[in-house]
Design a protein that fits this description.
Layout lengths: L10 H26 L6 H27 L2
Helix pairs in contact: 1-2
């Protein structure tokens, strides 16, 4: 049998950064679409949207910090 493929220890961190980058791009696209459609939202919906976007930014910051701690 052949030896199992061994990945460098930092491969997971690199993959994590790649995933966060892709998700960050997706978040930016969603933010832009939300801003374009704000005219059709009620004040309560705008408030909810703003809170969700703030929460998403906070979660991303936590993920980035966790990935950087593993360096």
């Amino acid at each position: 049998m052949s030896e199992p493929v061994r990945l460098p220890a930092d491969a997971g961190r690199g993959l994590g950064h790649l995933v966060v980058t892709v998700l960050d791009i997706l978040r930016e696209v969603l933010e832009r679409q939300a801003l374009r459609r704000m005219d059709s939202l009620s004040p309560a919906q705008i408030e909810d949207l703003g809170q969700v976007l703030l929460d998403l930014d906070l979660r991303f910051a936590e993920i980035r910090a966790a990935l950087d701690e593993r360096t």
